[in-house]
Amino acid sequence: MRTNHLWLRRCKRLTEMGWDEIRVRTLQALAKRCDFTLYRMGISGVNGNHRDGLEYRGRFFFQKEELREILASLWKLFPETAEQIVERAEQICRHRFDLLGYPGVNYGPEIDWHLDGVNNKRAPVRPWFRVPYLDFDKVGDSKVIWELNRHQHLVTLAKAYRLTEEEIYGRELFQQWYHWREKNPYAMGINWVSSLEVAFRSLSWLWVWHLLDGCSVVPKQFPADLSHALALNARHINRFLSTYFSPNTHLLGEGVGLFFIGLLCPGLPAARPWRDCGWNIILKEAQSQVRPDGMHFEQSMYYHTYALDFFLHSRILAELNQTPIPQSFDQTIEKMLETTAKFAGAGLAPQFGDDDGGRVFDPSRDQQEHMLDPLVVGSVLYDRPDFKTETNHGTEELLWLLGSEGLRQFKELPSRKPENNSFAMEAGGIYVMRSSDPTSYQLVVDAGPQGAGHSGHGHADALSVQLSANGKPLLIDPGTFTYADPLGERDCFRGTSAHNTIQVDDSSQADPGEPFEWKGRANGTVDSWITGKTFDFFVGTHTGYSQLPSPVRHRRFIFHLKSRFWVIRDVLEGVGLHKLAASWHFAPGSLHAIPEGAMFVGDDVTPLA
User: Fold this and answer.
1) Model confidence over 513-551: pLDDT tens digits?
2) Which has the closest alpha carbon to 302: 361, 349, 363, 362?
3) How do residues 97-126 score in pLDDT, each as one tens digit?
4) CA separation (Å) from 597 to 474, 484, 565, 581, 594?
């Protein structure tokens, strides 16, 4: 019966496809099996001479002769960051890795690149398209495996070598790189499943090459080996783009990978078409993935930052290599930065939707407060003092992307005290109530669509609220926790009960399907939004509970008398007897009992009774 059900689902899905999707998926299915056949015959998927791939190169973020000044500035201006790089490199040499919030995961004397070291589960080494990467029992958490195999830790080793000139970091780097290639032959294993992960790995290898080019620690054969490996990566990405599988940040990241390889390795035979394909994807996705108000369509603040990182890095590299940049692309990036800057006014970006846990530049900067990082680069790139917050003094990322000159320009930008006005992001359905005297409060209401497409990274959180004071969280969104697990925590954390809203009959506003899919949607609708000098007023509804046997409509009223109080009133409309539950998730340490009630307390934050 289960097999019959699976075939029924596949037939139904086939009827929903257009001809182009059927064509693309058919060609990709044939290409998978062709690559595996070549592997079994011992034939490389990449033919021709790739030794000159790195001989003639495009312009990277920094030139070889600029490295000495950048490294000196890193020690002088960001000494704690430099020390942390070296400390992390020491741990990496011991094969201990910080992965998605799990510190010091021990991979032992010989790294198993197919192992989820958190759950001690190993993915089978079989043709990549036959690896059940979402089956926790057979694979573990694929995100943990992929985080290690992004090889961003190799960039850390390269930086540590340049900062200290200690050869141990360089030797460990190349030992791991060659060991990875040995244990991950093309077409075999989980590390070829996701084209996005192949793109991330390619970016890391390009950073390593430009950090270590010309150093004595680099093996003589490495340039030729890297050139061949990058050609193989680009070929794979290009053949297996997520055009219809995950046309979101997956497709965007794959475009970035192709653009970087094609632009920086012009000696590769297919470099130009890879470069052009990647750039076209980046420009197209900038228009399709960003809403008119500047919010990313995944309905996740993390993915907003994630996409913004991709756009900023690509835009900077394009300009360095005289690639024409459409005005519309700059306008989209600025809109996204303006959205981030609005949230920066309260010192904390709200956390709604999924949190992937990774970053394009530095995976250690994955906390909520780091979601404002793009403003530093954006303030210099677009000469926008309004993006510069009073508390930010620059970042390591700015130094590497725009050099010492970029850091100087950032310091010269006048910092402005952000406006503390209430505002609405209408297309994204985010409404923000603020007051600032004497304490800076921010209450965020999520009344927008659940997400784009299958809403894979959106949560069933319609009309939920979050509250912070002086940049410290009080009422929170608990986050994602995991993408793969055996006990249903994924569905628990993205379900309605994990958010500050109303649950009816123990049901979620939308029923979860696959880990990145929902059965139905809980899209919010705003009935009224009034903001003024002394008060804000919001009324919103959603029909997520219309799927119940006895449907219920949830309407939420929020009144804010500025600097005084909020009133939240929930009205549930329907017939029959229903179980109602209101959830309030407090930040750790923010809730303390008092004799006749409760109050929020957070360090220097004024108590809110």
Assistant:
1) 888 888 888 889 999 999 999 999 999 999 899 989 999
2) 349
3) 999 889 999 999 999 999 999 999 999 999
4) 16, 39, 16, 20, 6
Nearest to 194 by CA among 154, 138, 147: 147
Radius of gyration of the chain (CA): 25
Buried b (16+ CB within 10 A) or exposed e, 287-304: eebbbebbbbbbbbbbbb
Q: How far is CA 29 from CA 15, 47, 144, 585, in A?
A: 18, 21, 27, 45
Which structure tokens are listed for 446?
């999520």
Alpha-carbon separation of residue 300 from 291, 334, 430 (angstroms): 12, 18, 11
From CA 603, how far away is CA 609, in angstroms rounded? 15
**CB-count exposure of residue 192 (10 Å: 0-12, 13-18, 19+):** buried
Read off the tokens for 548: 């119940």
The label of the residue with tokens 């500050």 reads: 500
Q: Measuring CA to CA, which residue among 589, 373, 560, 348 is closest to residue 469?
A: 348
Residue environment code for 44-70, b if the CB has 16+ CB neighbours within 10 A, otherwise e: ebbeeebeebbeebbebbbeeeebeeb
Neighbour-count burial of 524, counting CB atoms closer than 10 A to its CB (0-12 exposed, 13-18 middle, 19+ buried): buried
Per residue in 424-472, pLDDT (tens digit) is 999 999 999 998 877 888 999 999 898 887 788 889 999 999 999 888 8
List CB contacts of 603: < 8 A, sequence separation 6 or more.
472
CB contact at 8 A, 391 and 363: no
**Is the backbone peptide bond immediately before 486 cis, with ω within 30 degrees of 0?**
no
| Mean per-residue pLDDT over the chain, rounded | 90
